[in-house]
Amino acid sequence: xxxxxxxxxxxxxxxxxxxxxxxxxxxxxxxxxxxxxxxxxxxxxxxxxxxxxxxxxxxxxxxxxxxxxxxxxxxxxxxxxxxxxxxxxxxxxxxxxxxxxxxxxxxxxxxxxxxxxxxxxxxxxxxxxxxxxxxxxxxxxxxxxxxxxxxx
Length: 152
Prior knowledge:
Protein name: Tripartite tricarboxylate transporter TctB family protein
Structural class: mainly alpha
Shape: flat
Number of domains: 2
Domain DUF1468: 9-146
Distance between the termini: 55 Å
Order of helices and strands: HHHHHH
InterPro entries: DUF1468
Number of strands: 0
Helix content: 55-70%
Low-confidence stretches: none
Strand content: under 5%
Radius of gyration: 20 Å
Keywords: Membrane, Transmembrane, Transmembrane helix
Transmembrane segments: 9-27, 39-57, 77-93, 99-116, 123-145
Number of helices: 6
Mean pLDDT: 89
C-alpha cells in the first residue's frame, strides 16, 4: 500500500489536512460578516485534502534519479534547520516585539543568512515590506496586527 514515496507523502498530507480541516471548522462564526474568517482556512484545507488524494493515487513511477534527488546534503540540512529556527523565533517573539519590527528583522537576517549580501537593498526591503503590509492590513482591511514595543 505504501510502496512509493508519493503514497507515503499523500497519506501524511491527508492526515495533516484532515486535522487542519477539523480545526478550521472549530473557528467561531461571526453573524454580521459577509465573508467569515473561516473561509480561507476551510478552502485551503479542502484543497490540501483533494491534492493529497491525487498524490496518493498518482501513477508516477519512481526512478533511481528521482530517489537521488531526494537526498539532502548535510550542509543544506543545517541551512534548513537554521531557517526553521529563525521562523520559530519569529513566531515566538511576534506579539511581544510586534509585527513591523519582528518581520523586518526576520526578512533582513534570513535573506542575509541565505546569501543576499547587498545590505542597503536588504534594509530597504525589510523595512518597507512590513510597513506596507501593516498599512494594508490595519487601515485598508481593518485587521489589527500586534504593534509590540512600537507606540502605534
